[in-house]
Automatic annotation (TrEMBL):
Record-linked PROSITE patterns: ABC_TRANSPORTER_1, ABC_TRANSPORTER_2
Protein name: ABC transporter ATP-binding protein
UniProt source species: Fusobacterium pseudoperiodonticum
Keyword entries, A-Z: ATP-binding, Nucleotide-binding, Transport
Domain of life (superkingdom): Bacteria
Residue ranges constituting the ABC transporter domain according to the UniProt record: 4-251
GO molecular function annotation: ATP binding; ATP hydrolysis activity
Pfam family, one: ABC_tran
Family membership noted in the UniProt record: Belongs to the ABC transporter superfamily.
């Protein structure tokens, strides 16, 4: 039984108008438990639309999505957020800027449960948050009571990753989550992502325009083009590829 299965997914934006766009064309994909799949493709290839389809941002035109054999295509976005985490490119989109670091982390701990913020800010949880932050080696354990909004983008993305993985989601979607960071911080956040995926045996999809990252991380790589998965590289195939090879494969698609 496949862990996650996308079957013949189609999404057309602005149908029957001159702006009609077939953004996802009959996409089928089997994702195994523990897969860390990098996703590449040119601008407009459909990568974010694929994540939106999986997260339930819009209903599918056709096709189905199942996790552990449970069909989720009709499930609302907020329901899916209980078992699908997403980290966006913009640090502002991942955390609540006016709430403190501890309050943000408490919200993540509460995901999918009916506990109040007060309940989860108890001493045990604060110790847990402190510990998680200490492991980042960014000195953030001193900032539990600091408003998230005053932290740097890299600090916020690191905390966003902790929040997204705190409850070990069935699936984590990393949506160009390092693209807005400086190169050194990008590397830190990528290593942290890899560490969390391994530590918690997570299943992850990661969109990136950084071809080296797409090759370095994960055990599988998809290439999207004009709404279709045109290549599905195994770990072995990925290892044999260079950035130049990959670039050429992508350029050839446009010719
Ligand atoms: N809500 C929407 N309404 C209309 N068109 C949309 C919508 N969302 C995406 N599209 C269109 O679908 C196509 C795929 O967009 P998508 O954002 O998925 O591409 P992408 O591969 O993530 O690109 P990028 O690398 O630039 O982020 C684009 O042509 C885009 O304009």
């Amino acid at each position: 039984m496949p862990y996650i299965e996308l079957k013949n997914i189609n999404k057309v934006f602005n149908p029957n108008s001159n702006r009609e766009h077939h953004a996802l064309k009959n996409i089928s994909l089997v994702i195994n438990k523990g897969d860390f799949i990098t996703i590449i493709g040119g601008n407009g290839a459909g990568k974010s639309t694929l994540f939106n389809a999986i997260s339930g941002v819009f209903p599918l035109d056709s096709g189905s999505i199942s996790i552990n054999d449970v069909e989720i295509s009709a499930t609302k976005e907020f329901e899916r957020a209980k078992y699908i985490s997403r980290v966006f490119q913009n640090p502002l989109d991942n955390t609540a800027p006016r709430m403190t670091v501890a309050e943000n982390m408490a919200l993540a701990l509460n995901r999918g449960e009916r506990r109040t913020l007060k309940f989860s800010k108890n001493k045990d949880n604060i110790a847990l948050f402190e510990n998680l932050l200490k492991n980042l080696n960014l000195g953030l354990e001193q900032k539990l009571n600091t408003e998230m909004g005053v932290l740097s983008g890299g600090q916020r993305q690191a905390i966003a990753l902790l929040m997204a993985t705190m409850k070990a989601p069935e699936l984590i979607l990393l949506d160009e989550h390092t693209a807005a960071l400086d190169p050194k911080t990008q590397k830190k956040i990528m290593l942290l992502s890899e560490e969390k995926v391994k530590e918690k045996n997570l299943t992850a999809l990661m969109i990136t325009h950084n071809l080296q990252d797409a090759l370095t991380y994960g055990n599988r790589m998809l290439l999207l083009h004009q709404g279709e998965i045109v290549r599905d590289f195994s770990e072995e195939e990925k290892k044999k590829l260079s950035v130049t090879d990959l670039y050429k494969i992508m350029v050839d698609l446009d010719e």
